[in-house]
Amino acid sequence: MAAIGLSSLSACTTSEVLNQGYIVDPKSLELVPPGSSKEQVLLALGSPSTKASFDNEVFYYISQKRVRPVAFLQPQLVDQRILAVYFNKDDRVERIADYGLKDGRVFDFISRTTPTGGKDASFLGQVLSDTVGDSTPGAPAL
Fold first, then answer.
1. How far apart are CA 98 and CA 96, in angstroms?
2. Other CB atoms within 10 Å distance of the CB of residue 5
3. Phi-psi label, residue 117: left if phi above 0, alpha if psi -120 to 50, beta otherwise
4. Distance CA 85, CA 93 (A)
5. Strands 50-53 and 76-87
């Protein structure tokens, strides 16, 4: 009887992971090294989630990871990433960054640095500010 109760209880506690947006594929990233054209980026990564023009154009690929602990609960946002492809004045890839939050701050997981101020850092902070973990009381500001 106890085994049946435990097995039915464990069936209710399985969590579900929901990924939305662009999920970074390392093999696709290898197809767009610095110097690649915009056409190569579009062929390898597809259309960006959004674009911006600060000094030069930037393609942003945004993804979210949500976890639903139990089938009837709302999913909780646990991670959000922004893959940014920066182009130079010749429309060639200058660099690629994979932004997310680390210790409540915007962090580039490729160069292992935090971005400096400016329009790009402000945009990244706004998009990533909805991620769980940075909205808790006492979390560092972006």
1. 7
2. 9
3. beta
4. 7
5. unpaired
CA torsion sign for 21, 116, 105, 123 is negative
Place of tokens 């850092």: 121
Token pair of 115 as six digits: 């971005």
**Is the four-CA dihedral 98, 60, 64, 28 of positive or negative sign?**
negative
Q: Which residues contact 8 (CB under 8 A, 6 or more apart)?
A: none
More confident residue, 128 or 45: 45
Q: Which of 66, 125, 70, 74 is nearest to 100 (CA)?
A: 125
Q: What is the pLDDT of residues 88-113, one digit of tens each?
A: 999 999 999 998 877 777 888 888 77
Neighbours of 52 (CB within 10 A): 14
Q: State both tokens at 25.
A: 């594929």
pLDDT one-digit tens code per residue, 46-67: 999 989 877 789 999 988 888 8
- Give the global pTM: 0.70
Q: Which residue has the tokens 């139990």?
A: 70
Tell me phi and psi for residue 17, to 5 degrees: -105, 125
How big is the chain, counted in residues?
142
